[in-house]
Amino acid sequence: MRGPARTVVLLFLALAILSPQTPAAAEHLPGPCALERAEGEGPRRWARRLIRCATDEWPVVGGAKQAICIARAESGLNPKATSPDGTYVGLFQHAADAWPDRYREWTKRRWRLDDRPRNARTNTIVTIRMVNANGWGHWDGVGDC
C-alpha cells in the first residue's frame, strides 16, 4: 500500500491507539460493579453508585443506605482517605495491615481488581462481601445511621 491510502490507514491506526476509552468500555471490564465515573461525576457520588451496586449483588443489613452512611462516617465518602497515622485506609477505612489478606479472601483473581485499598471499587467490594458474610462487625454503630 502506497501514497494517500497508506497515510489514511496509518492515521486511523494511530487515532485508534491514542484515543481515550469511552465509558462503554466499562461494560467489558471483568468482575462486579465495573462502573466508570460519568463525565462530571465526583468521587463521592461515584462511591455511592459503587456501594449501591455492591449491596444489590451482596445484600447487607441496612442495605445501601446503611453502607453509604458508614462510608460517609469513615471517610467522608473519599476513596483516597487515610487516617492521620496511616493505620486505616480507603472508603471504609480498613486496617492497612489487614488489607492484603482481606483482598485475597474477598476478591477473585478473574475479576482483576486493583489491589490497592484506596481504589473505590475494590474497597467497596471487599467491604460489602465481608459484611454480607459476617455482618457489620467493627463497623456496627459507626456513624449516625
Question: Can you put this structure into words, describing what you see?
Answer:
- By secondary structure, this protein is an all-alpha fold.
- The protein has 5 helices and 2 strands, in the order H-H-H-E-E-H-H.
- A two-stranded antiparallel ribbon has the order 1-2.
- The model is unreliable at 5-27 (pLDDT under 50).
Rounded to the nearest angstrom, the radius of gyration is 19 Å
Structural class, judged by helices and strands? mainly alpha
Give the mean pLDDT. 86
What oligomeric state do these chains adopt? Answer: single chain
Shape: globular
Poorly predicted segments = 5-27
Distance between the termini: 67 Å
Helix content range: 40-55%
Strand content: under 5%
Strand order in the largest sheet: 1-2
Sequence of secondary-structure elements: HHHEEHH
Biggest β-sheet: count, sense, barrel? 2 strands, antiparallel
How many extended strands? Answer: 2
Count of separate DSSP helical elements: 5
